[in-house]
Amino acid sequence: MTEQHEAPGGVSRALQKDIPQATVARLATYLRVLAMLADDGVAIVSSEELAVAAGVNSAKLRKDLSFLGPNGVRGVGYDVVRLRARVEEVLGLADGHRVVLVGAGNLGRALAGYRGFRRRGFTVVGLFDNDQALVGTEIHGQQVRDARNTADLTADVAALQPTIAVIAVPDDAAQPVCDALVAAGVQSILSFAPCALEAPPTVEVRRVDLAVEMQMLSFERVRNADADPGSVAATLNEAENTTAGENNSGTRSVEHRSAATSGSIGARPAAAETGDDAQNVSTGTATAGAELADTAPTARSLAGPGRGTRRLPATHAPPTHAACAAAQATSHSATEPTSKGSVVTP
Where's the DNA-binding part (predicted)? Predict the structure, then answer.
């Protein structure tokens, strides 16, 4: 592993500015897995286990975590609680966030009732709508406030002092709502309206277009359906033949060396050397050697203060923790932004 000893101090703001958006998106995924591990009482997790659960390779995970500064212990792994706190600090979650929702329709009600927000540090403090039938009613513990007058909306939102606002209104109402939120001093806005919103450079607006995500899934479905099963099978057969040829070549080479050195002191039996060569060829064709150079190839027992004896799995083995296995089953890949103004939802 490339983990290093923990160093005192947090992550500087300068370092936070250097973190790529794609890495920030994956950090959010790592945080979800770390929270599950902490809930299960897991004290230490290896980079391989965390990477598998998050749906990325271990080399990318270690590179992402390197932006957080020195962390972990070489050859042991990451302290779950400490790494979770570090990721929360970088993502600005240490103090939590106050969230207002504008739009109490089907989507707004679903968002207001989502329990995962509070578990991850986001507390809904206000719910607004312009439907008089909804104003004054209570939805998931929040009384719906009147949003018909933009001046009143601005004043009410400012009084709640939110750090994040969510827009869940139709296209034609999205821009006026955005203007009211900006006037209230909100600098972070998440919009579920498909239209592009105009805001000052100091205001970060992220757009989630569910229809675009469905269209991308439709494209992938068509592309996968057009794949020729025969060509796929031929590719697999070619790969198998290549591997078999490499194994045979390695065997012949080893036999030749064994015959040439049979009279030398310390020469190994040909059969044993052939087995090692075949294993090396198989490993080399499966994964990049550079990516596995710093990982432990065999399982070993670990015990330390605050945790029971556990075993590290062999390289790229399935996750041993229940939380990791659950996260792997529900996560295909880490969320990554497609552009500055939009984000792909998993």
Answer: 29-68
| Single pTM value for the model | 0.60
Selection from 106, 89, 114 nearest residue 34 by Cα: 89
- By percentage, how much of the chain surpasses pLDDT 90? 50
Residue 190, annotated as binding a ligand: no
Q: How far apart are CA 49 and CA 65, in angstroms?
A: 14
DSSP state of 128: E
107 is in an annotated binding site: yes
97-213 CATH fold: Rossmann fold (3.40.50)
Strands 300-304 and 307-312, bridge-based pairing: antiparallel
Q: Answer yes or no: is 250 a known binding residue.
A: no
Render 254-297 in DSSP notation, one character per residue: HHHHHHHTTTSTTPPPHHHHHHHHHHHHHHHHHS-HHHHTTS-S
Q: Each residue of 72-125: pLDDT tens digit?
A: 666 788 999 999 999 999 999 988 999 999 999 999 999 999 988 988 889 999
Q: Is 304 annotated as a binding residue?
A: no
Task: Report how far apart, in Å, the C-alpha atoms of 101 and of each of 144, 150, 158, 177, 190 are.
Answer: 10, 14, 13, 11, 10
Listed residue (25, 5, 19, 30) closest to 87, CA to CA: 30
- Binding residue per annotation — 9? no
* 245 labeled part of a ligand binding site: no
7 exposure class (CB count in 10 Å sphere: 0-12, 13-18, 19+):
exposed
Q: Give dist(CA 294, CA 283) in Å, integer.
A: 15
